[in-house]
Every structure is written in structure tokens, then in C-alpha cells.
Amino acid sequence: MKASIIGASGYAGEELIRLLHGHPQVEITYMTSERHTGKSISSLYPHLINIYDSKLESMENVRHIAEDSDVIFIALPHGHAMKIAQTVSDLPVRIIDLGADYRFTDTAIYEEWYHVKHTDPNADRAYGLAELYRAQVKQARIIGNAGCYTTASILALAPLVKTHLVRVDSILVDAVSGVSGAGRSPKESTHYPEFYDSFTAYGAVAHRHTPEIEQALCDMGGTPVTINFTPHLAPISRGILATCYADLREDVAPEQVDAAFEELYAGEFFIRLGGRGAYPATKYVRGTNYCDIAWHIDPRTHRVIVFSAIDNLVKGAAGQAIQNMNIAFGLSERMGLDLVPMYP
Q: Of 155, 171, 201, 319, whose CB has the highest number of CB atoms within 10 Å?
């Protein structure tokens, strides 16, 4: 298959290049960057020297790119994918958007949280969280790849909400990300002297991944869900650890919680269950598409605590996008992603 990457110069774009290089059924045909048009990708990422030295193109030629591609990955901030998808809507190319444009069923929610008018509300799209939306991903022309914080949080909570074991008005999520989640463009808050040897919360009560988590949990349980979500940044380059809290319903036994996770994720290669009492860590999933999940039950408060660890650039971005591509084209989901974590 021919795959092109729109926005190849960012961290998610670079990670797509790394992973697609090892995919036996994919050839990368085009890579674009508006900021670095004409430069070689290896001049921006020297670890790609003699592996990928091709020149970055402009996405102004997106129709030409689409005509010569089976799938286009869009690794750009929100607002761009809608324009690209509409420009090539008459062509038989599949689109996987790593941004937020196609993640929401109700585009009014997108407009409320992202402050951008949605210009393609009737697009044939699916939410790209593979383990929970596999059937929809297989059929849709456009796949709105799930966000990084949302992937870790939704996968941690879906079994409990789906089986109605927790009170959905009691859910709290504290999630910690590595600084690569903030992107490659320099910012004062992620400048090394400002960020090193520090740990900080940000975006409390207003982070844009909040409604995305709520939407998926509503889909799982069939009733509206409102959560508190607080993201944090840690002085690491990769990884997300989500800690999720919820009140168990009356008379729910620990064994029911265990069964909910084991039943929903039975046979899911990329979900690794540590079980009750374990502690996942970002180091154990580094560089892979795995999501490690474990849970604890507090008998004193009758509350369940779920830990979920992913690599934000892989399962939280590029790896999940490739998993969605594999589903969409009828390939093994593991193809190109059957990787051993990097350790230490």
C-alpha cells in the first residue's frame, strides 16, 4: 500500500515514519512539512540518515498526493484535516487524522471546546480507538485517531462503565504525560531549564480531551458521563500514566471488577492486564503500541483505582493510527507493531 504523511516533521509524524518503515505492506510515498518544505527529513531527524533522505513537500499538492496514495495520515493540529478531507473527498483514499477534527460524533462539542467551526459535519468517519470501535473503523472513510490522554483513560475505564460497576458521576482522572506530548515547537513552559526537575499540573477543568473521554464512556455505558480530568507534565520524553478513580456501586465484589477487564479485553493483543494489585509503568511500554492496565480496590472507601500506561507517541498517536490502518485495510492489527518495549 502507498501511504503519505501530512505533517511529517513533528514528533507524531516522525514516529509514523519509524513504524511504517517496519511495516511489510506499506511504502511511504510522500511526506510534507510547510515549515521545512524542500529540506530532507533526515536533516531534521539525523537518526533517519541513509534510511529516509527524501525531501519534504508542501501539502498544497494534496490532491496529487491523494491520487497516488491508498491512505493519508494527517499529523497536524486541529482545523487542518477538515480542509484536506474535503479537498480530496471525491478520491478513493482513506484518511487517518491524528488531530481532533473527526473524533466527535456531535460536532457542536468540537466547536465548543476547540473554538473552530466544523466544516465537514456529515463526513463518513469513525472514532479511532481500535479495541472499542473496531467495526466502525473498518468501514469508515475517515478515522479520527483517539487522543493520547484519552486512549489511556478510556481503556482504563471502559470495562467498568460498560458493565455498570461504577457510579459514572464519581469518575476522576489524573494523567501524567511526557513532554513530547507538547509537540516539537519550542515553548517557554517546556524549555529545559523551566521544565527539568519539576512536575506540574495544567489545563484543570478545561482540557480538550475531557469531552472525548466522556463521549466514549457514554458510548460504553449508554448514559451521559461527566468527569473531572486533570493532566500533568513530567520530566520524561515519552509515556502517559493515567490514574482513574470511581466509586463502585453497592454490593460490587472485587471479582466482578476482575471479570469486567478480563472479558472486555480477552484476545486483545495490545492490552496487557497486570490484574488486581499491580502497578504499570511507562518504561514497560516505551516504543510500543501496548497499553498496560492494572487496578486496585479500596475496601475502606469502596472505590476502584485503575492505572493505565501507554507510550503517548505510539499507542497515543502513530501506533494507534497504524493499528487503525491495518483494520481498515483488512490486515493483521499486529502488522508493523509487534515490537518489544525499549528498556531501560
A: 155
